[in-house]
Amino acid sequence: MPPLPPVTKALMLACTAIFCLQFLLGGYALTGWFGLWPLASGHFMPWQVVTYAFLHGDMLHLFFNMLGMYMFGAEIERLWGQRRYLQFIAASVLTAALSQMLITALAGSMGPTIGISGGLYGLLLASAMLFPNRTIMPLFPPIPMKQRTFVLVFGGLELLQGLMGFTGVAHFAHLGGMLGAWLMIRYWRGQPPFSGRRRW
């Protein structure tokens, strides 16, 4: 296995270290200040649109997000370089946060959102756009499929579950992360809704 590139490694270490701190201090101690709270809750602070991504609910939540960062993030960082990769992750995390804030405002939800899943879904979309015909074997379901198909299925399931009101998972934050990823790549390529070709 090749060594992890620096930004992916730093993100994974930060998420893991903060999860350990959550465990030591009690989950709510950090979530109260750094989780993403709805605007109407009275607990929202501007820094939460970034800090929420470094918190996780349990070991399984952390494990699958870190596995995804390892599988998809490391390769994309090697391809794009540290600066562009960090910009991309930031865009996905921020659009995931804004999407979740909009949905919680419409639904009247008052609970916090945590996890870097929005950034991970952005990486999934980027990987599918860069390598659409690569065959992968997902854990669920264990069926070989093209990467483009895998991401379309995952995106469709997230939308369906979000519309059906499945709780406990920030489905629209995941979709927001994918939207931010798509917009960032379109911006770099100078494609609509952006104009003027940039260096890709």
Automatic annotation (TrEMBL):
Location (main, coarse): membrane
Query: Where is this chain's protein located in or outside the cell?
Result: Membrane
Q: Which UniProt keywords apply?
A: Hydrolase, Membrane, Protease, Transmembrane, Transmembrane helix
Q: Name one Pfam family in it.
A: Rhomboid
Tell me, which GO biological process terms does this entry list?
proteolysis
Q: How does it sit in the membrane?
A: Multi-pass membrane protein
Q: Where are the transmembrane segments?
A: 53-73, 85-108, 114-137, 149-166
Q: Which GO terms describe its molecular function?
A: serine-type endopeptidase activity
SUPFAM superfamilies the record matches: Rhomboid-like
**What sequence ranges are listed for the domain Peptidase S54 rhomboid?**
45-185
Specify the superkingdom. Bacteria
Question: Which InterPro entries is this protein grouped with?
Answer: Peptidase_S54_rhomboid_dom, Rhomboid-like_sf
Gene Ontology CC annotations of this record: membrane
Carries keyword Hydrolase? yes
Which PANTHER family does the protein's record reference? PEPTIDASE S54 RHOMBOID DOMAIN-CONTAINING PROTEIN, RHOMBOID-RELATED PROTEIN
Provide the protein name. Rhomboid family intramembrane serine protease
Q: Which organism is it from?
A: Ideonella alba
